[in-house]
C-alpha cells in the first residue's frame, strides 16, 4: 500500500512538472464581474459561461491537473478577493472534504445544469444565455456564502469543476502508471 501511494505521488509530481502558467489570480476576478454585467445586459453573452466551465476540463485533459483552479479561475479569484473582509476564517467540516460529499454536490449541480439545458436550448439563444448566467450567478452566490462562513476560498475545495478536473487528473495518472 505504501509503495502504491509513493508511486501515485511520484506520478502527480510528474504532472506538475509540465509547464504551468504564472498565476493570474490577482486580476481574473474582473472576468467574473464583467461577464455577469454584460450577460445581464445582453443575455447571449451568457454563453461564454461555457468557457469557464470547460477551461478546467481542457487543462486537466492536457495533463496539468487542477492548474486552472490554482492559476486562473475567475470565480476563485472573485471569492478570494471579496470575501476576505467578511470571512469567518473557519475551517470547513471534514465531511465537506470527503469525495462522497463532493460527488453529491457535483451530481446535484450537473443534474440541475443538464436539466436546465434541456429546458433552455429549444427556447433559443437568449433563454440559453440567461439560463447559463443565472446558474453561474447562483453558484457564485453559494461560493461567496461559503467564503463568508468558512475561509475565503473554501468553495474551491468543493467546486464541481475542480472535482471534475481532479478526477480527470487521477484517471490520467492511473492510466500512465
TrEMBL record:
TM helices/strands, residue ranges: 45-62, 103-120, 132-150
Pfam families: Fer4_5
Domain of life, source organism: Bacteria
Entries under InterPro entries matching the protein: 4Fe4S_Fe-S-bd
UniProt keyword Transmembrane helix, yes or no: yes
Keyword Transmembrane helix: yes
Domain 4Fe-4S ferredoxin-type: 46-90, 141-170
Keywords: Membrane, Transmembrane, Transmembrane helix
The protein, known as: 4Fe-4S ferredoxin-type domain-containing protein
Organism ancestry: Bacteria, Bacillati, Bacillota, Clostridia, Eubacteriales
Amino acid at each position: 500500500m505504501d509503495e502504491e501511494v509513493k508511486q501515485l505521488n511520484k506520478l502527480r509530481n510528474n504532472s506538475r512538472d509540465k509547464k504551468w502558467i504564472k498565476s493570474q489570480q490577482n486580476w481574473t476576478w474582473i472576468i467574473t464581474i464583467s461577464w455577469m454585467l454584460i450577460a445581464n445586459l445582453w443575455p447571449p453573452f451568457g454563453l461564454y459561461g461555457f468557457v469557464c466551465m470547460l477551461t478546467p476540463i481542457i487543462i486537466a485533459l492536457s495533463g496539468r491537473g487542477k492548474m486552472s483552479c490554482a492559476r486562473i479561475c475567475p470565480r476563485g479569484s472573485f471569492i478570494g478577493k471579496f470575501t476576505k473582509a467578511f470571512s469567518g476564517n473557519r475551517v470547513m467540516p471534514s465531511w465537506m472534504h470527503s469525495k462522497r460529499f463532493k460527488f453529491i454536490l457535483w451530481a446535484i449541480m450537473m443534474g440541475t445544469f443538464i436539466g436546465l439545458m434541456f429546458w433552455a436550448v429549444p427556447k433559443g439563444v437568449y433563454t440559453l444565455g440567461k439560463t447559463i448566467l443565472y446558474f453561474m450567478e447562483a453558484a457564485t452566490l453559494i461560493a461567496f456564502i461559503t467564503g463568508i462562513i468558512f475561509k475565503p476560498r473554501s468553495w474551491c475545495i468543493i467546486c464541481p469543476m475542480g472535482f471534475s478536473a481532479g478526477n480527470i487528473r487521477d484517471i490520467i495518472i492511473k492510466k500512465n502508471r
